[in-house]
Every structure is written in structure tokens, then in C-alpha cells.
Design a protein that fits this description.
heterodimer, A: about 350 residues, alpha/beta, Rossmann fold, seven-stranded mixed sheet, five-stranded mixed sheet, 13 helices, 14 strands, about 40% helix, globular, B: about 180 residues, 6 strands
Chain lengths: ~350, ~180
């Protein structure tokens, strides 16, 4: 067994980004992801890499655009209000087909909100928080080790599809500590060369990286190419986990921190004879519609639990349609539902 | 088996650090652990608490409705968390600062003069280690020597080698305070 480290979610994400070969990290500090910035500030310069505490979130995301265009692995991180400020830049990254990783350690909203855990930025992440017909891959880690693993994956997916990828975490996952076995740093030399990058046009034709085209015909072509890429991602990259669903009458659908709390609820419900299972989307975009639909055919009730007014619930209902009951239980404002509170909801729907 | 503890007190009493040392010791001892702090403004002088879950299986919820133990270092913490202790669980009450007895009779209550012990040990700021020592004796979740080792490492990492001896003594005295 590799050595285990007791890390916060924020630290696991930062350290995994370093091990994934992140060369340039730009951010403006905000709670509850301060430790992520601190870890990068401490370690990136020591490794001869770039850490810049930008003058604003807008500056940070545009620095990411520049670093991505130059062909290096790059990341920024923030929390809800800061991520809102980055939306224009994220749309530009998507439009310019640039790979980058963006971390949102979500806190209570809207507005300045508070610094407590929330999942109220789901719409913004998966339905396009910026302008234009774009998507980014959105990964929802549920544990500290998984936050690390998905960060490694995020850099690979960003490069493979030349797209921004978001890690959608929350304050609870960012702040809590858990043992992590860190992966070995990747061998940067093993990564495919980025022939498209703006690396200085010595001895070759210039590479041009743009997110605009004034001709509607050409912009339509650009959009069609993006949509073809998204179709490819939908086909290849759907990830989810099912737990105790084989004989279930009821399943909870939850992601992130809420999903790990729901795992305890599954244990509690089973102990009192309720056949409860858990369906946990890992990719929030692309959403696992098909597997959830297949599961809905076998159960009576699909209960969505999330720390929002019911944002992911919309995707659950798209998947399930009329195949099962689709009740919702949520908390807002930074309140985290406890296992007992969720169990009380489950009991209402038990046979 | 899954065990959990809420360590609660004033900001500055070291509850966050005590929880981290316990979690680290649990991990070193081969357990699965989670450590969850109350974070934000309450870290600066108000009440602070953290929850540690220790288990031989992967931990689901890091949030616990009914912890198997509570360490209450001040009255607001006792008021808030005494009702939550699981039946037959452990409640450690800091008698030095809390003027009332615990109300529950279905749990194991240990009233310990934690501040007096810390002062006797030679550093009033070792309240958190006295409390942790008492908790370890009452629950036997992790061996005392593992916690001492982890504590010493944490002090060394923080450049506070000279505090190792007094904190070891605080852990010992807290441990000895429980029958």
C-alpha cells in the first residue's frame, strides 16, 4: 500500500493538479477554497512552475486562457461568486477549444451568500454559465481521494477533447480531511504534443487560436464542430456509481458530499428493512441519463437529494420521466442534510 | 465498527488541532477516518467544533447525528451537544468551566477538571491534550502512544519541539483522570 496522507479536499485537488503536470496556476483567494490556493502558492514556485495570485478572478481566468493557448496544463480555482466572474472566460475557452481545469468549491448563494457548503451552482456548471452553445465536462467528487483522482482525470479529459473541465466540489468536501493515497506524478514526456498550440511559429505556419468568426456561415461550422465534440464526449465519458441497487425499491440520486452522506443513509435504511439504493452521477455533464433511466424501470421511487432548490432534480426527471415517482429533498443556504434527516424522507416513500 | 466524536469549545481551546491529531492517529493506526471542522468566523473566538469519525470500513457521512462521544470544553458546547450523544456513549465534561452537571443518565459521563489539570501540567494551553487523553482512556479508540507519536510529529512540523514534553504530560494526566 502506498503511503496515506491526511488531506483536506482542497489540498488533495491542489496536490493532484501538481502531479497531473499543471504548469501554471492562477487564482484569487476566496473561502472555502483558501487551502487550495495556499498549497499551490507553497509548492508551484518550489517546483519551478508558475503560481500567480491574480488581481481578480477575471484576470485569473484570462491568464488560464493564455497558458492553455501556449499548450501547457493550467488550472484556476475559486468558489461560487468568484466562479460567476470567470464565466466569460470559460465561454471563451470553450469557443477556442482550449483545455483547462476549473475548480469550484461551492458555497451558499445567491449573491455573496455565505461560506457554508452548497450545491447551488449545478445549473451554472452543467447548463452553461457563460454565453453561447457550449458545455464543459463537469466532475462531481464525493470523497477526498476521489477529488484527487478526478483532478488527475480532468487534465487528461481537457487535453483529449480540448475543452474546459470543471471540478464541482463544495465547502464540505473542500474543508474535510480524509486519508489519501496520492498517485505518482505523471511523466510529462509521455503526453501527446499539442500541435495546435501557440508556441512560436519557427519553421512552421502560425497556429491561430480564436473564439470568434464574423461570418455566420463559418461560425455555424465552428458550432457544429463543437456539437460533434460534445456528442463524442456524451458517448465516451459518462461516469456514475450504483450502490445496493440490485434489489432496491427506492433509490436516492445524489452527487458530491450529499452522495457520501446518502451512503450512510443506505446502511441505516437497510438495517430497518427498507430496500434503499444509491445512484451517484460522477460526471454531471455529460449526465448519466441512460443508466438512470434503466434503473428507474426497476424501482418505485427515485428520490433526489441535493443541497439546492432542486437543480439536478431537473436532470433526474428528464431521465426518469414517468417510469417512477420522483420526489425531491433539498437544503439551501449552506445547510447540510444529516443522515437522519434524509432517512426521515426515505421512510415517507418506503412501501 | 464506526465511532465518532464531536470536540467542542471556545475558539482558541485547540479543539480543531485535537481533532486533527486524533484523525491522524486513527489513520496511522490503520483506521478509516474523516475530520470535519466548523469553519469560518467561529474559528476566531466564538465556539468551534470538529467531528472525527473512525471506522474499520470506508466512512460515509462525515456529519454525525448521534456521535458515540462528545468532549464539551465549555457550557455552550455542553448545552448544544449533550442531547446528541448516542445511547451508551461517552460525554466528557470540562468541570473547570462548566458549572452544571450533565443531565443524561443513559450515557457514560466523565466530569474532568480539564483546565486545572492543564495548569498543573505546566501550560494552561494544553487543555485540548488533557481532554484528548481523557477521551482515549474512556473509549480506547486509538492507543495513547500512537497519539503521542502523532502529536510530537505535529509539534515538530510546526516548529514547536519545546512543547512536546508538556503536551505528552497533558495527554498522560488526562488519561489518568479517567478511572
Amino acid at each position: 500500500m502506498r503511503e496515506r496522507y491526511l488531506l483536506r479536499g482542497n489540498e488533495a485537488i491542489a496536490e493532484s493538479a501538481i502531479r497531473a503536470g499543471c504548469q501554471c496556476y492562477f487564482a484569487y483567494p476566496i473561502t472555502p477554497q483558501g487551502e487550495l490556493v495556499e498549497h499551490m502558492a507553497h509548492n508551484m514556485p518550489r517546483l519551478g512552475r508558475t503560481f500567480i495570485q491574480a488581481e481578480s478572478e477575471v484576470a485569473a481566468i484570462n491568464m488560464v486562457y493564455g497558458a492553455a493557448a501556449a499548450g501547457v496544463r493550467t488550472m484556476t480555482s475559486s468558489s461560487s461568486p468568484g466562479i460567476s466572474l470567470k464565466q466569460e472566460g470559460i465561454s471563451y475557452l470553450a469557443g477556442a477549444n482550449l483545455p483547462a481545469v476549473i475548480v469550484n468549491v461551492v458555497r451558499g448563494g445567491p449573491g455573496l451568500g455565505n461560506i457554508a457548503p452548497s450545491q447551488c451552482d449545478y445549473f451554472q456548471a452543467v447548463k452553461g454559465g457563460g454565453h453561447g452553445d457550449y458545455h464543459m465536462i463537469v466532475l462531481g467528487p464525493s470523497t477526498v481521494p476521489e477529488a484527487g483522482e478526478l483532478t488527475m482525470l480532468a487534465f487528461d479529459l481537457a487535453d483529449r477533447y480540448r475543452t474546459p473541465v470543471m471540478i464541482l466540489a463544495d465547502g464540505l468536501l473542500g474543508q474535510m480531511m480524509e486519508p489519501v493515497e496520492l498517485p505518482a506524478p505523471i511523466d510529462m514526456a509521455s503526453l501527446p504534443a499539442k500541435e495546435w498550440a501557440a508556441t512560436g511559429a519557427r519553421g512552421r505556419e502560425p497556429n491561430i487560436i480564436l473564439s470568434f468568426d464574423l461570418s455566420p456561415d463559418n461560425l455555424k461550422k465552428m458550432n457544429l464542430a463543437l456539437q460533434a465534440k460534445y456528442a463524442e464526449i456524451r458517448k465516451n465519458e459518462v461516469r456514475y456509481e450504483e450502490a445496493e441497487t440490485e434489489d432496491a425499491d427506492i433509490v436516492i440520486v445524489a452527487y458530491g458530499s450529499t452522495a457520501r452522506i446518502a451512503k450512510t443513509v443506505v446502511r441505516m435504511a437497510r438495517a430497518e428493512g427498507i430496500r434503499l439504493g444509491l445512484f451517484r452521477p460522477i460526471t454531471l455533464w455529460p449526465y448519466p441519463y441512460e443508466p438512470l433511466r434503466a434503473l428507474a424501470d426497476r424501482v418505485d421511487t427515485v428520490l433526489t437529494v441535493e443541497m439546492s432548490a432542486g437543480q439536478m432534480w431537473e436532470d433526474v426527471r428528464l431521465a426518469v420521466a414517468e417510469r417512477a415517482n420522483t420526489p425531491f429533498y433539498g437544503e439551501m443556504g449552506g445547510i447540510v442534510p444529516t443522515p437522519k434527516e434524509i432517512l426521515t424522507e426515505v421512510r415517507k416513500h418506503a412501501r | 465498527m464506526e465511532r465518532s466524536v464531536v470536540i467542542a469549545g471556545f475558539g482558541g481551546q485547540g479543539v480543531i488541532l485535537a481533532g486533527k491529531i486524533l484523525a491522524q492517529a486513527g489513520m496511522t493506526h490503520g483506521l478509516e477516518v474523516t475530520w470535519l471542522p466548523s469553519y469560518g468566523p467561529e474559528m476566531r473566538g466564538g465556539t468551534a467544533n470538529c467531528t472525527v469519525v473512525l471506522s474499520d470500513e470506508p466512512v460515509g457521512s462525515p456529519i454525525v447525528d448521534e456521535p458515540s462521544a462528545v468532549i464539551a470544553l465549555n457550557l455552550p458546547s455542553l448545552d448544544k451537544f449533550e442531547p446528541t450523544v448516542a445511547a451508551a456513549g461517552v460525554l466528557i465534561v470540562n468541570q473547570s468551566l462548566i458549572g452544571r452537571a450533565a443531565k443524561r443518565s443513559d450515557i457514560h459521563v466523565y466530569a474532568v477538571p480539564i483546565n486545572e489539570i492543564a495548569t498543573r501540567v505546566g501550560n494552561p494551553r494544553t487543555v485540548n491534550m488533557v481532554a484528548l487523553g481523557a477521551y482515549l482512556k474512556a473509549t480506547r479508540v486509538v492507543p495513547l502512544d500512537v497519539v503521542k507519536r502523532v502529536m510530537a510529529e505535529a509539534m515538530r512540523d510546526g516548529g514547536k519541539e519545546k512543547l512536546i514534553a508538556v503536551n505528552e504530560k497533558a495527554l498522560d494526566e488526562g488519561y489518568a483522570a479517567i478511572p
